[in-house]
Amino acid sequence: KMKFVTSSLQFCHHSNFLKFNQNIILPSCLFVVFLGPPHLFRLAGKCFSFVESTYKYEFCPFHNVTQHEQTFRWNAYSGILGIWHEWEIDNNTFLGMWMREGDSCETKSRQTKVHLVCGKSNKLAYVSEPSTCVYFLTFETPLVCHPHSLLVYPTLSEALQRKWDEAEQLLYDELITQQGYKKILKEIFEEAGLLKATEEKEVEKRNKKISLEFETVEKCSKEYKQLSKEIEKLKDLLSQHGIAYKGNSGE
């Protein structure tokens, strides 16, 4: 039997950060707090099953989706179809959850989109595989029956709401295009943690953070002295091992 990831909600790559230990999936990455409509937090820590033909699917909101082959074959499949990754958002509305970076499948990883619909009870109602290794789940819950239950704007911080309001005004004044407006919204959602930024953007954020550290001469001088000490240590280490190196005072 495969156990679902029981730690807090995560944004990490399964292929790089999850490892198998017998029948238990062990998370070994950093976790973040719940992000999204607050009332949906009630679903965290729970799992819902659905049996289709010889397969049992298990959906654990904000954790993962697993598939278990119900057979006595010695090599019956039991694995991960996706790890909680991000929301799908359109027109100020949470449309569903994307569970990505599941088990490897040919040249890519399995992934699952979970569509949230109104229902009388919390239930995994439908599972399909519209394309190879890409799955589609329909999850029914009374938590999304209210017409405003999946609005994005109320879940944002005041600062991000103001940023959204400013973008609306710019669009109204025709100072930005519809494409520019959508780009700003995407940045807002990424900053809020609702969407996962691309690796390029993550690098850009880190570089921006580093540049902010040198806003003053004092900070720059302090960092320069620290780096100089590290360079001297590296030079000594290279000399001890007889490794030639090139360098100058400018470097």
UniProtKB/TrEMBL annotation:
GO CC annotation, single: Golgi apparatus
GO molecular-function terms, A-Z: transferase activity
Residue span(s) of domain MRH: 45-147
Gene3D superfamilies linked: Mannose-6-phosphate receptor binding domain
Coiled coil location: 217-244
Domain DMAP1-binding: 152-251
Pfam families registered for this protein in UniProt: PRKCSH
Protein keywords: Coiled coil, Disulfide bond, Signal, Transferase
Family annotation (InterPro entries): DMAP1-bd, Gtb1-like, Man6P_isomerase_rcpt-bd_dom_sf, MRH_dom, OS9-like_dom
Protein name: GNPTG phosphotransferase
Species of provenance: Halcyon senegalensis
